[in-house]
Amino acid sequence: LFALVAGNLVAKEETFITMNGKKVALRIWTQAHNADKTEHAMNSLIKAMKWDEERFGLEYDLDLFNIVAVDDFNMGAMENKSLNIFNSKYVLCTPETATDMDYERIEGVVGHEYFHNWTGNRVTLRNWFQLSLKEGLTVFRDQEFTSDLNSRSVKRIEDVSLLRSRQFAEDASPLAHPVRPESYIKMDNFYTLTVYEKGAELIRMYQTLLGRDGFRKGMDMYFKLYDGQAVTCDDFYAAMEEANDTSLGSFKLWYSQAGTPSVTALTEYQKDAGKYKIVLSQNLPKTQDSSKEKLPQLIPVAVGLVGPNGNDLPIKSVNNVPTTDDGTSPTTVVLKLTDWEQSFELDGITETPVPSILRGFSAPVKLFAEYSMDQLKFLFANDSDEFNRWEAGQRLSKMVILQSVSDGKIEEAGLKYIVEAFESVLDDATIDNKIKSLLLTFPDMDVLIDGFNATYPGGADPVRIHETVSALKKAVAMRLRSKFEGTYTSLVEEATKAGLASLDPPSISRRALQGTCLDYIGSTGDEEAMAMCWKAFKAAKNMTDQISALKACTSKSGPVCDEAFDSFYEQWKDNALVLLKWLLMQGASNLPGHTAEVKKLLSHPAFDMKNPNKVYSLLGGFSRSAVNFHNIDGSGYELLADCVIQCDGINAQVAARIVGPFTKWQLYDKTRQDLMYKQLERIAATPNISKNVYEMVSKSLKE
Question: Rounded CA gap, 185 and 194, in Å?
Fold first, then answer.
């Protein structure tokens, strides 16, 4: 990929010395008024160059590396050789105008585009069907980069949350496609979560199966064999096998079979034999993209066993094969599921354990395992795998929410479990504050919809699910109010003593938990709580705290909500990037009747249908609003369809992205299915519709 940029720009310049002593000039180009907002991006670039040398032995090959930031750009960024073009939201930041999450995303995207120099440019694609060869691999590399520089557990939880809430829904839709697609009308439409995020999970599974050192050997072999060539996913697979002198068997099927596999685990403790038996089975769903019979594929399932005292139990052997060559007994083993069903016996187990299955989310699958609420509460308190500790809380919350949706009222016994579990987290001083904030978070709406459809036939009612989650959240907040307020107050006092906003890990973690506590306080909705939220909003000295307070202030209709939205706009109306946050929160609002406000915003000075970022913020946010987008009167669907049609005449790529929520129409109840299908038909009947939108809509209309 090559690019040429001309404009009235200024550059921030630094020099990087490679591991072999070569000087590389680094330049980040922006408009003059943004020149003071590129320091973090430059630091991220330098970190990425150093990390790639240390982790993979990959050195930059030229003596110049440019980044240019532009405001109107369909994508996040593009890896043109020595001249990366970036959407300005992934370059420009200061603590006053960007959240901690913005800083992390900038670091990740800068790393991602730089890493493409080797995985995408030096070794490139033989054809577009191999897109995941560069994108899935490079997403994995940027995930590892962020994990090594920050918290590995936090990053893993964030990445899996995105995968399960968005990519799993894509897999369940009429647009399901394999990581290596077999056909397309517009290639633009295959820059998907499946190609990127699921593709990254495939790369991660190589590392899980081969080990970190074995994966590095495979990467070295890949570059040795194919540097300067255009290759395929099969070539990458072959390099991994050759470098490790092994066979990965049916693993290659992950590239050609669409859909999210499900894995069911049945367990039995055989006390007298000192064995723990796990029977794993896999199932691959039928998908619209292919009528071919699905075959079992290699799935790595990482398993640990937690003893009664909360400590992991050593596992001596699996099916009578020692787990190590040196006689040591690890506490986590990777079981290789290769058939439709297999049995595994873990030996040397002297106490009744609770199984911790799919540790670290070792494969992108849906796990079905029978856990009692007591077992989930135990894992939530004791699992040494921080991902599975979080997962236990997610499972516990989901169990209570779905039962409450079915019953039409909050399930009291389940509420008690959640309150006790959350209270233990708030009281545990050994847990990192950012991990705490994640442990205290309920499952995403898309995860709940998927869980509801797996349990109850007939499709999900997103409004009812949202109302149940809101009621449960308020009930938890009321029971733990003194804990949330006490934790929040102490965190604010810590921040006051620390002074100006710092980007060090403890400060970032503190702000995360502070925002979570304020969110719970705001969910009670009473006058005292809203006054506390408003005070936090007015006192905020950085964008992370201000956005957290704005979210809490605007969770309930009333004067505090209106004043907070208005005040934020007045403060930042001259900063286009900050106003994207305002548009997003306005669009995503679950305040009843807010569709009318979104309609007004379409003609607001802050919005412009020609600017991709503004479209993604307002309309992307709106499509995430359970109450307004999914209003049973169909007004939300009609509004988005109107905007898709209008946008298609301006920017077909953007229009194809915002039409996405309609493609998941089959997940909802019959009334909403009919309403969404009607809008798909209306879009399809629009004269001169673009190929981009036509492909998305026509596939969605195939039942």
Answer: 17
